Amino acid sequence: MHLADAKSLLQNKYSTKKDLCNLLKSIGDFYFLEKTLLKCHLSKIMGEKRLKMSDVSRDTGINPGTIRRIFNETATRVELNVVETLCEYLEVEVGELYELQSKKSEVNPEE
User: Fold this and answer.
1) What are the residue ranges spanned by the domains of the chain?
2) Which residues contact 16 (CB under 8 A, 6 or more apart)?
């Protein structure tokens, strides 16, 4: 891929994920992307217990936005007292709520 093609792809907001992955592969070192090390199972646990985010927030006093970010795995940091409160409320151990995962994963243009 030529530099002009790469610039065009990056500037085109309608580029497909496959095109962008191919661009990353052609660059070289970006074939592997960093991913989060912690996988949160809050959504799974809440589903098993048939709980809604509003229930958890109301019953624990944790801000609804915090619950939403943890649930959607978009939280960049979580206070330990929040983790402790969630574990006590859900009756789970920290290791059941959070799981340590692989650091790197391969970019898959088919996803």
Assistant:
1) 3-34, 38-105
2) none
Contacts 24+ apart (CB under 8 A), 65-68: 67/42
Percent of the chain with pLDDT over 70: 59
Instruction: State the Cα–Cα distance between residues 71 and 67, nearest whole angstrom.
Output: 6
- Tell me the CATH number for domain 38-105: 1.10.260.40
Strands 104-106 and 98-100, bridge-based pairing:
unpaired
The owner of tokens 């789970």 is 92
Looking at residue 68, its pLDDT comes to 95
Element (DSSP H or E) covering residue 88:
helix 80-90
The neighbouring-strand residues paired with 98 are 40
d(CA 86, CA 39): 15
DSSP bridge pairs for 105: 33
pLDDT, tens digit, 9 for 90 and up, residues 6-54: 555 555 554 566 665 665 565 554 444 445 577 899 999 999 999 999 9
| Average pLDDT value over all residues in the chain | 76
